[in-house]
């Protein structure tokens, strides 16, 4: 109860849930659990756009998203009174789609993949067509490229620095790149030695794999977002969907942390790192809570039907690969060493 302190009531839902709870799981292992992390950049991007005058009342907000960035925008747009249109694809679960509708957002389901770039490319194409229709009366937050996305995480980094200190090892999943890059960049202003471990999944192009089907959602990409600053990462781990699902359940069973599969993927990496380096403080980013996954990652029947119930005994350590493009499931580690993506990919070309 010592962690509780008196404070004034929050003025809005977004104010109440914009920052995570920092929870100690083991001696040197912490998790930062967000209700849904993308609320933080959504709120920051909208408020910065209002301050600059690039977003004014009466305009429509447009974005492409299949996950919680759409929800973050829906919350903030509801609070500020903006109409929101989301361009998504069939991977969006019905519960999230229903919640977006309840918050007043219009959801456009894109059902055909582009030959290059998959659903993300076709969603962007549909959004672009809608922007041409609306002209100057719309605003696109551009989560994958706006510098306001990583800048939003300064608030989170300052929270970490105050609670556990800035010289930490940060472990987080990589989708848009905003959370991991923005947080560690701020931490390194105070502690240049702060370490960053990125967690991706197989068949994601971000760190050099070939694009392909991904069963683990919420991380990975078919395009390389501009906000992924590869030179900030010390290590990169690739995690399979079955292993992430098993780790998600373990995180809940052992520590009562109810989170989604991207959190599980990062947790297994953070747990390994904490045991390998007991002198380090490890902080694992948990991007959302587990409510959306009750009938998936937490459901043994669903896991069996989808061929994902085979990693009940969590692996103790990853394989270390010579190059991320050749890494194979279930878990691979690559020492990125703060290099550019081009520099890493050129290593493979020189060897071959």
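Sequence proposed for the structure above (352 residues):
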């Amino acid at each position: 109860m010592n962690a509780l302190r008196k404070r004034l009531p929050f003025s809005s839902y977004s104010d109440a849930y914009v920052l995570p709870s920092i929870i100690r799981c083991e001696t040197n292992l912490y998790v930062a659990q967000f209700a849904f992390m993308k609320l933080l950049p959504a709120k920051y991007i909208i408020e910065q756009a209002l301050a600059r005058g690039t977003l004014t009342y009466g305009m429509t907000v447009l974005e492409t998203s299949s996950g919680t960035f759409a929800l973050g925008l829906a919350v903030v747009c509801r609070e500020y009174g903006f109409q929101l249109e989301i361009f998504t694809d069939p991977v969006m679960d019905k519960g999230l789609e229903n919640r977006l509708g309840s918050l007043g957002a219009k959801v456009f389901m894109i059902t055909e993949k582009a030959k290059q770039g998959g659903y993300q490319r076709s969603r962007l194409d549909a959004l672009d067509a809608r922007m041409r229709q609306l002209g100057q009366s719309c605003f696109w937050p551009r989560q994958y490229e706006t510098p306001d996305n990583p800048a939003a995480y300064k608030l989170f980094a300052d929270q970490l620095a105050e609670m556990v200190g800035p010289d930490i090892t940060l472990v987080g999943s990589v989708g848009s790149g905003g959370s991991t890059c923005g947080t560690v960049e701020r931490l390194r202003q105070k502690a240049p030695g702060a370490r960053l471990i990125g967690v991706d999944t197989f068949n994601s192009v971000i760190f050099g794999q070939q694009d392909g089907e991904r069963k683990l959602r919420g991380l990975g990409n078919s395009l390389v977002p501009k906000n992924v600053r590869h030179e900030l990462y010390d290590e990169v781990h690739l995690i399979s969907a079955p292993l992430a699902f098993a780790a998600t359940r373990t995180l809940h069973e052992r520590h009562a942390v109810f989170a989604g599969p991207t959190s599980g993927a990062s947790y297994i990496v953070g747990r390994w790192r904490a045991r390998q380096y007991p002198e380090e403080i490890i902080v694992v980013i948990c991007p959302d809570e587990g409510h959306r996954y009750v009938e998936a990652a937490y459901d043994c029947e669903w896991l069996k039907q989808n061929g994902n119930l085979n990693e009940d005994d969590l692996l103790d350590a990853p394989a270390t690969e010579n190059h991320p493009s050749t890494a194979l499931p279930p878990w691979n580690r690559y020492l990125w060493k703060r290099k550019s993506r081009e520099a890493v990919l050129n290593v493979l070309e020189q060897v071959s």
